[in-house]
Amino acid sequence: MQRLPSLEAWLARLEQLHPSAIELGLDRVRRVKGAMGLVPAFPLILVGGTNGKGSTCAYLEAILSAAGYKTGLYTSPHLLRYNERVRIAGREASDAELVAAFEKIDAARGNTSLTYFEFGTLGAMQQFIAAGVDVAILEVGLGGRLDAVNVFDADAAIVTSVDLDHMDYLGDTREKIGFEKAGIYRAGRPAICADPAPPASLLEYARRLGADLRCVEQDFSAQREEDHWIYRGPEISGVALPLPAMAGAYQLRNAAGALAVLEALRTRVPVSDSAIRQGLALARVPGRFQRIARAPDVILDVAHNPAAARALAATLHEQPVAGRTLAVVGMLADKDAAGVFAALRGEIDAWWTCTPDSPRAQDAAALAALLRTQAGSAPIRVQPDVNAALAEAQSAAHEGDRILVFGSFYTVAAVLDHATTQQ
Q1: Where are the beta strands (DSSP E) in 111-166?
Q2: Mean pLDDT, residues 354-376 taken together
Q3: In whole angstroms, what is the distance from residue 129 CA to residue 131 CA?
Q4: Fold for domain 290-422?
Q5: Nearest alpha carbon to residue 369 among 396, 328, 338
Q6: Interatomic CA distance for residues 394 and 386, integer angstroms
Q7: Which pLDDT belongs to residue 283?
Q8: In the chain, what are the domain boundaries?
Q9: Which residues, in sequence order, are bridge partners of residue 214?
Q10: Residues 6 or more apart in contact with residue 204 via CB below 8 angstroms
Q11: In angstroms, what CA-CA distances link 29 with 59, 60, 135, 151, 423?
Q12: What number of CA atoms fall less than 13 Å from residue 308's CA on the CB side?
């Protein structure tokens, strides 16, 4: 076991320990899990899907916390601090707690090589067990079937949506990706699907496995009314609830998926109607249509694939402004930028491209060249980095305009980090 002086030193080491950043498969993680004796005695919820995972996790954590449970939450990626990935009872893990977990993993793994994400996953579970949480929520990092979180058996699992992303790893069709996402389901246990048009591969996987499959618009539903919404599930005839605090019509489906999970686990972690209402009002996720300034509004969104961009376009359309919508976009090179631009073309009046601070970033000039084939007559400007692009957009904005910053976690993180340092 190696001792290092800080969390930063540990994270730097974890990035170098394994020959590749991503290696899907469970054998190595399972060996170290066994060596550490990581067997959770509390209910475990796995949350997978292309989009909607973060919001669904937030609803689950907020509602369970409001019901009085000590929650554990593991998510990825982080925006500003690695500590964001591990939360216990609503509090981010401290540097010391994370370092102690990494030291335990390092001592147990022997010659087994683990990736950065695999270390983090085992470390999160080690902390949840040590803290004695009542229930834990794990967000899938990539896919599902071969993702490190899937080394733990879910008491209930949800696939929030299935769309095209990470195709180099998961396949180039919804059918292939749906098969990978369904891998978090377990025989005889609740398997929630919140995608209204799930691929046949997901349905077939769940049925062959013998999972307790519950699908949105068949087994549970969300119906919007004027100032509230109605949830209906297998055991619930209809509950009127306040609209979620997070913006976007798609949030009703995310919230309904979370409630379907909790309904399926009601005998182990019952929650009251008041806890549900409180959780819906309190759940927030940074970088999901997050407004950080006004006059003009500055809105941050991590949307980085065409499905997320379509949802973002719908939210912009639902919330019109008197003036223009100006967009600052920075994306990674392995993303479908053309599909993203096509989805948002009708909602954006002017564009600024930038290069996120990542070795995987798409160059701002190359992004602008692609955008020119998609953006119609909307003007396009190029800046080297995110905050320079945002500053120029703010200078160009008039009263009644709004500015959207989107395209990557790296893009949103740069703005949040700059805003924090300016305070």
Answers
A1: 135-139, 156-159
A2: 92
A3: 5
A4: Protein-Tyrosine Phosphatase; Chain A (3.90.190)
A5: 338
A6: 12
A7: 96
A8: 7-282, 290-422
A9: 192
A10: none
A11: 28, 26, 22, 7, 41
A12: 25
Residue 50: HSE in the Cβ half-sphere, 13 Å Cα cutoff: 29
Residue-wise over 168-205: b if at least 16 C-beta within 10 A, else e?
eebbeebebbbbbbbbbbbeebbbbbbbeebbebbbeb
Structure tokens at 346: 């009708």
Give the integer Cα–Cα distance in Å for 302 and 394.
19
pLDDT tens-digit readout, 33-77: 999 999 999 999 999 999 999 999 999 999 999 999 999 999 999
Task: Give helix 386-396 / helix 409-422 axis angle, nearest 10°.
Answer: 70
Q: Which residue has the tokens 């692009």?
A: 389
Residue 5: pLDDT band (50, 70, 90) is confident
Q: Is residue 423 pLDDT above 60, yes or no? A: no
Per CATH, is 7-282 categorized as 3.40.1190.10? yes
Q: Which residues of 140-152 are buried (b: 16+ CB within 10 A; e: fewer)?
A: bbbbbbbbbbbbb
**SS3 per residue for 191-245:** EEECCCCCCHHHHHHHHHHCCEEEEECCCEEEEECCCEEEEECCCCCCEEEECCC
Confidence band for 421, pLDDT divided at 50, 70 and 90: low
Quote the CA–CA distance of 216 and 194 in Å, as a whole number.
5
Q: Identify whether the C-beta of residue 151 lies closer than 8 Å to the C-beta of residue 30.
A: yes
**For 164, which DSSP code?**
S
* Helix H or strand E segment including 88: strand 86-88
